[in-house]
Design brief:
Strand order of the largest sheet: 4-5-3-6
Number of domains: 2
CATH class of the largest domain: Alpha Beta
Oligomer: single chain
Mean pLDDT: 89
Number of helices: 5
Length: 112
Amino acid sequence: MEEAEQVCDRIAIMDHGKILALGTPGELIKEHVGEEVVEFNTNTVDLNYYLGRLKQAGLSFQTFQNTVCVMLKNGQKAEQVLSSISSDKIVVRKPSLNDVFLKLSGHQLRDV
C-alpha cells in the first residue's frame, strides 16, 4: 500500500473482488480517514471505556484487537483524543491507504 500511495495516480481499494472506493490516494485518504490518525493500545478491560469516551466526543475510530485508530477530520484535533485516553503507546501520525482499507473493509490487509 505504501508504494501504491507514492507512485499511483488513481487507486481502487478492493476486498473480496469488490471495489470499495476509487480515486487518487489523497482523495481517498481525505474522504475516508481525514487529516490525522491517533493510534493507541489499551487492555481488554479498558477498551469499552475508551470507546465510549471517543463516541461521546463524536470521534470516528476503528479497532483491531486492542489497538484503536481514531481518524480525525477537519477541525478535530489530536488533543481531543489525548485528553480522553491513557496508554503506554500513543502515536499521532498522518493517515495512509492502509487506514482507508481498514476503515472500508473492517479488517487489516491479508496475504493472498
